[in-house]
């Protein structure tokens, strides 16, 4: 690194001293904290994003958001060239530079890391980073800090994409690196055109009901509500009413996180909405849940969570693949037979996992966290993943998509209008509609809506696919959470010795009992999850296992 570059970094860093006594850690959500503590961190993430761009020779992204957190918080995360999350290999470096105490320490870390990663500062393609932020008042100042971080790498370019949803920013990064136009208008055009294609491919004779075309959406008073209110004008065959679109307090009594955890209607919804199909986005529109308001039960709802969204998507895709393969010998259709996989964590309700397996789908579990789900889904031709909180998407491998396009081209020339040709068209349209970079509430919502119309299902019929087992989650304070070591996607505790056998003995007392423990990633607590056929049984199982955790390694507080 030349002296000029070193001096620019040191001078820039001096303008953004880190707050005293604050240590931050980069996780699935990037860095998050009270917005007043983040200027230095966001500046340094700007540097990281520019370095990542130099390393890969591609465009990267920086998104400033705290998703479903309260409005006084904010956060920052990096979008990798694929449009996905920052590679896990770089997370320790993110932690190190965020917590470097002074400019000289920061410079030394960057020099050492650049040498290790063989990052050249001269002669190659200049770094380029796309920036986005949500609607939080603190976003503008933090965006400026990120820009200054990017420009402290000589020659680096930071392009402000404006106020966008998190999935839009990730989509734009992916699009730019694929040679496509990266703009909000191109994002909306791709979603609306693929939605229209799928609507045109609905089977004839599906029962239509005027009410079934109306969807009421809680926008969490965030960026998603604002974008959807604009985007809905581009959609035909679907009537959308958006509430909480920015006229109230962000994430306060609204949003997918609130609805899914509290199981009550968000602000602005009530008994008058009974019978309507409703959906809720989270603050930055990367989570989606559906619900219907119960009649004469105050704010109580029937929740349709991420597990049910996953089930709907999996059934639809499985059906299209079956149509495509119908009547073909194994040898004939091997060229485009898809390996379809469903990816969940141990937190997925057991009833959903059982249902998916009964439908003949391959289900695999990963440790908790979107990064693990996404990575596993890439191993399939078509991989579908969702968490119960409504975060998830569908991934199509490049190899399968190429085979599908070739098959579709052949079918168009030999049997246009046939069931097989239409199935291939639907699958191609789904691959365009769904955001393959990250979970996206807007694209997910459109896919849910078109599948419900394809099936001729109401939200009630959808919700009847299976009935969730009652569950309970507890936290147990411990002296050292690292004393718990898990295996088999966190479903088995291998340390402390003997605790799993004790848990198994408790599980055996309950019909359809299931329970696991896992250490928190951020605090010294162990999390307990339990299921059984009744709420009382789930509560009792969770309590007894929490007591076991306390006996083995607790601090006496559950």
Automatic annotation (TrEMBL):
GO terms for molecular function: metal ion binding; phosphoacetylglucosamine mutase activity. Residues 305-457 form the Phosphoacetylglucosamine mutase AMG1 domain. The active site is at 67 (phosphoserine intermediate). Substrate binds at residues 387-389, 518-522, 527. Mg(2+) binds at residues 67, 282, 284, 286. One of its GO terms (biological process) is UDP-N-acetylglucosamine biosynthetic process. It catalyses: N-acetyl-alpha-D-glucosamine 1-phosphate = N-acetyl-D-glucosamine 6-phosphate. Its cofactor is Mg(2+). It is an enzyme of class 5 (isomerase). The keyword Translocase does not apply. One of its GO terms (cellular component) is chloroplast. Residues 475-547 form the Alpha-D-phosphohexomutase C-terminal domain. It holds the Pfam family AMG1_III. InterPro entries: A-D-PHexomutase_a/b/a-I, A-D-PHexomutase_a/b/a-I/II/III, A-D-PHexomutase_C, A-D-PHexomutase_C_sf, AMG1_III, PAGM. Pathway: Nucleotide-sugar biosynthesis; UDP-N-acetyl-alpha-D-glucosamine biosynthesis; N-acetyl-alpha-D-glucosamine 1-phosphate from alpha-D-glucosamine 6-phosphate (route I): step 2/2. Its EC number is 5.4.2.3. Binds 1 Mg(2+) ion per subunit. Keywords: Isomerase, Magnesium, Metal-binding. Residues 56-90 form the Alpha-D-phosphohexomutase alpha/beta/alpha domain. Interconverts GlcNAc-6-P and GlcNAc-1-P. Belongs to the phosphohexose mutase family. This is Phosphoacetylglucosamine mutase.
